[in-house]
């Protein structure tokens, strides 16, 4: 059937499943006459068609095969209702295609004017947030300034939203140097609110993962004075651990010093979240700070030894003592990549590389553990392990315990294995 035979009926065909497919095939023939005929009968109805279950597919195809002049007319006709289109489950697809094919400064300006006053509303919508992300992908950093301004001024509303926290991270990705610095400064200003939120905490972790001290250090100092409190909360404890791993050693030292108060430290060791913060602090502290932290923990151990958290901490300290790491020769973990990378030899179960005495494996959680290619013989109960420093172990008993719970597995780049 030639397209001319349906002249005057094209709009109704756009809303029909079979008619829409027929018109799409005619557009794919790349005939300028066909494109012009379909364009003339649909351009005034673009809002209606973009939100139609079938018509939106025709609009997407028309935007792909139309020329710049035709595309400009379609964008101008859609502009007054562009937010409505973006919020629609069908319209969001057609609008993303429209943004994908913009090609002139005039078209860019029309898109910006249509969306600029309702950026936050779009970000918080299931459909609309994809339109904003398409703008970030398609527009230059300068053209996307209207998005950075909106999210920066409403970073709490955006960052604490299920969809908004993802869009805020994409904004950080696409912003230029000055734009990124401004946006992160606004986020840092509200960090104490974001850090305790189920979604906002991911935004702060993302900033730390940039591994740029000019962003990480000010963020860490925002939490100064509240480290024990934030460590005992589910969401903020993850951010504090991330800060201990990613901040400069001098900043990490400041954070750890807040934990050295015996009353607070005991509460942290007993807490189901804060005890992991303490373990991370032990892993990433410089040698002098590590010594201070371990010596502060020792008097508390008898009171918490019977708890699962206490046993893990005790195991970590015994492993450090056994390797003599408090002589000042130890070095903290590599901060550029989290834990010391595992070699291929160590990617098997950690029991294969941990000296075993009477069924007890020395903890491999500490950062100074080294690959162990062989295996030590079993020793009868009561005999010291040949690799143990007898004088150090004597402070806590001459025998290693018969059984031990591994508790939380060691982390590699923030993940458990």
From TrEMBL:
<feature type="repeat" description="Pumilio">
    <location>
        <begin position="150"/>
        <end position="185"/>
    </location>
</feature>
<feature type="region of interest" description="Disordered">
    <location>
        <begin position="322"/>
        <end position="395"/>
    </location>
</feature>
<keyword id="KW-0677">Repeat</keyword>
<feature type="domain" description="PUM-HD">
    <location>
        <begin position="1"/>
        <end position="321"/>
    </location>
</feature>
<feature type="compositionally biased region" description="Polar residues">
    <location>
        <begin position="326"/>
        <end position="395"/>
    </location>
</feature>
<dbReference type="InterPro" id="IPR001313">
    <property type="entry name" value="Pumilio_RNA-bd_rpt"/>
</dbReference>
<dbReference type="InterPro" id="IPR033712">
    <property type="entry name" value="Pumilio_RNA-bd"/>
</dbReference>
<dbReference type="InterPro" id="IPR016024">
    <property type="entry name" value="ARM-type_fold"/>
</dbReference>
<feature type="repeat" description="Pumilio">
    <location>
        <begin position="222"/>
        <end position="257"/>
    </location>
</feature>
<dbReference type="GO" id="GO:0010608">
    <property type="term" value="P:post-transcriptional regulation of gene expression"/>
</dbReference>
<dbReference type="InterPro" id="IPR033133">
    <property type="entry name" value="PUM-HD"/>
</dbReference>
<dbReference type="Pfam" id="PF00806">
    <property type="entry name" value="PUF"/>
</dbReference>
<protein>
    <recommendedName>
        <fullName>PUM-HD domain-containing protein</fullName>
    </recommendedName>
</protein>
<dbReference type="GO" id="GO:0005737">
    <property type="term" value="C:cytoplasm"/>
</dbReference>
<dbReference type="InterPro" id="IPR011989">
    <property type="entry name" value="ARM-like"/>
</dbReference>
<feature type="repeat" description="Pumilio">
    <location>
        <begin position="77"/>
        <end position="113"/>
    </location>
</feature>
<feature type="repeat" description="Pumilio">
    <location>
        <begin position="186"/>
        <end position="221"/>
    </location>
</feature>
<comment type="function">
    <text>RNA-binding nucleolar protein required for pre-rRNA processing. Involved in production of 18S rRNA and assembly of small ribosomal subunit.</text>
</comment>
<feature type="repeat" description="Pumilio">
    <location>
        <begin position="36"/>
        <end position="76"/>
    </location>
</feature>
<dbReference type="GO" id="GO:0003729">
    <property type="term" value="F:mRNA binding"/>
</dbReference>
<feature type="repeat" description="Pumilio">
    <location>
        <begin position="114"/>
        <end position="149"/>
    </location>
</feature>
<feature type="repeat" description="Pumilio">
    <location>
        <begin position="258"/>
        <end position="295"/>
    </location>
</feature>
């Amino acid at each position: 059937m030639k397209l001319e035979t349906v002249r005057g009926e094209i709009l109704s065909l756009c809303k029909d499943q079979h008619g829409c497919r027929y018109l799409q095939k005619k557009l794919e023939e790349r005939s300028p006459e066909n494109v012009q005929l379909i364009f003339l009968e649909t351009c005034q109805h673009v809002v209606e068609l973009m939100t139609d279950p079938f018509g939106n597919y025709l609009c997407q195809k028309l935007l792909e095969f139309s020329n710049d002049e035709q595309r400009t007319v379609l964008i101008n006709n859609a502009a007054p209702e562009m937010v409505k289109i973006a919020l629609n489950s069908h319209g969001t697809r057609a609008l993303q295609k429209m943004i994908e094919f913009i090609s002139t400064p005039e078209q860019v300006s029309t898109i910006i004017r249509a969306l600029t006053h309702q950026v936050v509303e779009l970000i918080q919508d299931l459909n609309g947030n994809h339109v904003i992300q398409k703008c970030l992908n398609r527009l230059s950093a300068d053209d996307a300034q209207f998005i950075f301004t909106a999210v920066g001024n409403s970073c709490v509303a955006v960052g604490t939203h299920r969809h908004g926290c993802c869009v805020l991270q994409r904004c950080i990705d696409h912003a230029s140097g000055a734009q990124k610095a401004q946006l992160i400064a606004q986020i840092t200003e509200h960090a104490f609110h974001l850090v305790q939120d189920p979604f906002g905490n991911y935004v702060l972790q993302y900033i730390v993962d940039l591994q740029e001290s000019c962003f990480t250090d000010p963020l860490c100092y925002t939490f100064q004075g509240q480290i024990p409190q934030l460590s005992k909360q589910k969401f903020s404890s993850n951010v504090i651990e991330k800060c201990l791993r990613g901040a400069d050693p001098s900043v990490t030292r400041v954070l750890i010093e807040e934990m050295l108060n015996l009353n607070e430290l005991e509460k942290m060791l007993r807490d189901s979240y804060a005890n992991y913060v303490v373990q991370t602090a032990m892993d990433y502290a410089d040698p002098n700070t590590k010594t201070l932290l371990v010596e502060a923990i020792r008097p508390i151990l008898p009171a918490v030894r019977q708890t699962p958290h206490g046993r893990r901490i005790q195991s970590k300290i015994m492993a450090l003592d056994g390797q003599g790491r408090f002589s000042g020769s130890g070095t903290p973990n590599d901060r550029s990549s989290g834990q010391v990378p595992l070699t291929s030899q160590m990617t098997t179960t950690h029991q294969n590389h941990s000296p075993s005495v009477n069924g007890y494996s020395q903890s491999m959680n500490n950062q100074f553990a080294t690959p162990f290619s062989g295996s030590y013989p079993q020793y009868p109960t009561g005999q010291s392990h040949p690799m143990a420093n007898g004088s150090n172990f004597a402070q806590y008993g001459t025998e290693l315990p018969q059984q031990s719970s591994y508790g939380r597995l060691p982390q590699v780049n923030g993940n458990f294995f």
